[in-house]
Every structure is written in structure tokens, then in C-alpha cells.
UniProtKB/TrEMBL annotation:
PROSITE patterns, sorted: DIHYDROOROTASE_2
Protein name (database record): Dihydroorotase
The organism's taxonomic lineage, starting at the top: Bacteria, Pseudomonadati, Bacteroidota, Flavobacteriia, Flavobacteriales
Pfam entry (one): Amidohydro_1
Source superkingdom: Bacteria
Key words of the record: Hydrolase, Metal-binding
Organism name: Bizionia saleffrena
Keyword Plastid: no
Length: 448
């Protein structure tokens, strides 16, 4: 069988802070040549003329919930990974709060087996920590697993790690990167009681960021950082949502040398508390979408490198579930399909450069998680590439939403930019709302 050969011509290649017009030669799974002009060697080359369009390294989304196993009425690895490649995401790291939870090696291997058969995007998984699975954590192979996920708030099942002694033992016992969800449960519980007494279950949605408050986030984040400094653990704080928390992080070291890092999610860069009256539970996330001031401070920290990564926290629920009253409506929403178009909209609004978007969505996740040969457009790297047309408007509608849950908080939004092609390991996996049956995805490996 002949090796697949693809030539992308006249591309505006966005990589390592530059945009340069180049040709990209892909042989098999890898980029083998990048030059001003490359001539095809023979007639078997698949040629794409990308003139006028940008080529980005595929986004590495370090936080998704694809709901498999056990919650597949909301989504599954097959449906959500297809939506991901349509949104410019070629690799994902999935979270452990499935049913059953990914808190044993056997359950982790079960998820790898599912992804190997059904995923359209490259995949890895976080291993979940609990109050009583330290011995299992010690068995995790750091070359095969992205890291460890701890819920220090807003957990499902028994995944809330609230025993200080256990928490310190975990931080002291693993070299894995520890990613944390930080919200203080005691503070949230106290706030919720106030509003439940006033409104019952049907609390107006705009009180969500007051119940899951700035204080709840800051207390938990600062405690986690204090523990990481005490134990020397490698800490990554997921979905920072407040301006106050950004002061906990530093830009004094290059990312590869940082021991404490942070992520912001697209919904916290896009929405504000002014959107609750219109969007209601469709923008109910944990941590909550907060004020415009918080949103501006998050963007500022992202641009000055106190915040290192942009992710989605894609977490679908059914329309029926989301339409419940406040206390019954689950938090979370689908986002992977609209990730890159939303970020590029911020570029069109002069909020962020394309080079910075690529740094925070591709380069930095690769550095942070030590992902092998991905996250850049370089010779010798896997050809995970996204072709983007910055001037091809489209509107998010029911009939073009790809999530299994069938809805999006962006419904009705017109984006100026669209993903026209997505290559995964050199194979054309997606083109203009059309998918290809061949699965090119691979399990991510880590250079540790």
C-alpha cells in the first residue's frame, strides 16, 4: 500500500509567533517538508490550494467531558470527537467523572479501548483522584496518561477530595501533573441556602455567580497553590473564572519551567453575567460565568502569560436536563465545535492575535503536558492541521450543530471564520461540514 502524500500550497502558516506563506508536504502521518515552494514528486499527491487561508496546528483541548461510559445519552466519544475536529480540535484530554469513574487502571483501559475504536481526534485521559485511591494513582504510567484530575469542589459521585491529609499525600506522592477544579464547597453551600430559602428551587439564574462566588473560587485556588508550593507538586488550575484569581499566577518563568499553571475556558472569555437573563441555564457552568470586569481581567492575564492555556471544558447535557429549574439544571455545556470560531471572533474584535490563540491552544498544551510531536507545524511532527477561512461567515443553527445533545450556547451567533479542513495525523478527517469514514486518530503519548 502506497503511503498517503498530501501537499498544502500557499498557506499562511501560523506557528511560534509568526505568519508566513509556505507549502507543507505531508507524507503518511508526518510533516516532512515546509518551504516557500514545494513541487509534487508524482501524480499520487493530494494537493490543497490554501491561498488566502491560514493553517494552524490543531488545538489540543486539555479539558473535555465526552460522557462515555455511562452518560452516553448526553454524548459519547464518537459524537463529541467528530464535533471537536469540526471545531479545529485535533487532540483532547478527557476527564474522569464518567460512570463508572476513571479511578482504577482497569476503568482507564476501558476508556482507551473505546477511544481506539471510535474517536475521530487524538485522545488521552485524566486519571481521577479520590479520598481512597492513592495506591491506584501510584500505578499510572506517565507516558500514557495526561495527568491526574482532582475535584476540590463541584464533584460527581465520590470524587470530591476533601480530606486534607489525603490531599497532601497525593500531592507528595506523584510526579504526574495535577489538574484541579477549585471551588470551596462550604462557601457555595452557605450561599445556596440563602437563595433557596428565598426562592425555593427556582432561583433566578443570574444569582449563579453569586452562589458560586468569587470568594468560593479564590479560597480553593489559593489553598491548592499553597499546598503545591509546600509539597513541590506540579499544579495546573483548570477554568480560572475570576480576576482576583489571576493574581495568584506568575509570568516570571517560561512555561516549561513553571510548577504552577492556569487555564481559562472560552465561555469565561465570551459571556458575562449580563447574558444570564437571555441565555439562562445554557450558560450555567461551574465555575460560573462572572462579571464583565472578570472577563476583561482573564483576557489580560491570558495575554500577559499569567494564564497559560485556553480550553473548552466541553460538558454536554440534554436539552431536557438544562431546561429544569436552577437547582435541578446541571452545570456545563457543549463547546468543542465552536471553540476555534469563537476565538477567531475575538481576533476579529481585536481582543487577541491569531499567533497568541495558537500559542495558548496548541503550543502551550503540548509544552505543559509534554505531548510528543504535536502542537506545532514543524518538520518531523504529526500533521495535525486546521485550515481556516477568516472571511467565510456562518451562523450556528440547529441543523449544523454536531453535538449529540443538539444544542449550543452559541445558537444564533454568526461567526466570521470557519474551519474548512481538518487533518488528523496526515489524514483529511473533515471538510466543510463533511466527515470521512476513515479514523486517523491515535492515542497521545507523553515525553516524560
Amino acid at each position: 500500500m502506497n503511503e498517503r502524500v498530501t501537499l498544502i500550497k500557499n498557506a499562511k502558516v501560523v506557528n511560534e509567533g509568526t505568519i508566513e506563506t509556505r507549502d507543507i508536504l505531508i507524507e503518511g502521518e508526518f510533516i516532512t517538508k515546509i518551504a516557500e515552494s514545494i513541487s509534487p514528486k508524482n501524480g499520487d499527491v493530494l494537493i490543497f490550494d490554501a491561498e488566502g487561508r491560514h493553517v494552524l496546528p490543531g488545538m489540543i483541548d486539555d479539558q473535555v467531558h465526552f460522557r462515555e461510559p455511562g452518560l452516553t445519552h448526553k454524548g459519547n466519544i464518537e459524537t463529541e470527537s467528530r464535533a471537536a475536529i469540526a471545531g479545529g480540535i485535533t487532540s483532547f484530554i478527557e476527564m474522569p467523572n464518567t460512570v463508572p469513574q476513571t479511578t482504577t487502571i482497569d476503568k482507564l483501559n476501558d476508556k482507551f479501548a473505546i477511544a481506539k475504536k471510535t474517536s475521530s481526534a487524538n485522545y488521552s485521559f485524566m486519571f481521577g483522584g479520590t479520598n481512597d485511591n492513592l495506591e491506584e494513582i501510584k500505578k499510572v504510567d506517565p507516558k500514557q496518561v495526561a495527568g491526574l484530575k482532582l475535584f476540590l469542589g463541584s464533584s460527581t459521585g465520590n470524587m470530591l477530595v476533601d480530606n486534607p491529609e489525603v490531599l497532601e499525600a497525593i500531592f507528595s506522592s506523584t510526579d504526574l501533573l495535577i489538574s484541579v477544579h477549585c471551588e470551596d464547597e462550604a462557601t457555595i453551600k452557605k450561599n445556596l441556602e440563602v437563595y433557596t430559602e428565598r426562592y425555593g428551587d427556582d432561583i433566578p439564574m443570574h444569582f449563579h455567580p453569586i452562589i458560586r462566588s468569587e470568594e468560593a473560587c479564590y479560597i480553593s485556588s489559593s489553598k491548592a497553590i499553597e499546598l503545591a508550593k509546600k509539597t513541590g507538586a506540579r499544579l495546573h488550575v483548570f477554568h480560572v473564572s475570576t480576576g482576583k484569581e489571576t493574581k495568584l499566577f506568575s509570568n516570571k518563568l517560561p512555561l516549561k519551567d513553571k510548577k504552577i499553571t492556569a487555564e481559562v475556558c472560552i465561555h469565561h472569555l465570551w459571556f458575562s453575567d449580563k447574558d444570564y437573563d437571555n441565555k439562562g441555564s445554557f450558560i450555567k457552568w461551574n465555575p460560573a460565568v462572572k462579571s464583565e470586569k472578570d472577563r476583561d481581567q482573564l483576557l489580560k492575564a491570558l495575554l500577559d502569560d499569567r494564564i497559560d492555556i485556553i480550553a473548552t471544558d466541553h460538558a454536554p447535557h440534554t436539552l431536557e436536563e438544562k431546561q429544569n429549574v436552577y437547582t435541578k439544571a446541571p452545570s456545563g455545556g457543549p463547546l468543542v465545535q465552536h471553540a476555534m470560531p469563537a476565538l477567531l471572533e475575538l481576533y476579529h474584535r481585536d481582543k487577541i492575535s491569531i499567533e497568541k490563540i495558537v500559542e495558548k491552544t496548541s503550543h502551550n498544551p503540548a509544552i505543559l503536558f509534554q505531548v510528543e510531536k504535536r502542537g506545532y507545524i514543524k518538520e518531523g511532527y504529526y500533521a495535525d492541521l486546521v485550515i481556516v477561512d477568516l472571511n467565510s461567515p456562518w451562523t450556528v443553527k440547529k441543523d449544523n450543530i454536531l453535538y449529540k445533545c443538539g444544542w449550543s450556547p452559541f445558537e444564533g451567533t454568526t461567526f466570521k471564520s470557519r474551519i474548512t479542513h481538518t487533518f488528523v495525523n496526515g489524514g483529511l478527517a473533515y471538510k466543510n461540514f463533511k466527515f470521512y469514514d476513515t479514523k486517523f486518530a491515535k492515542q497521545l503519548t507523553f515525553n516524560r
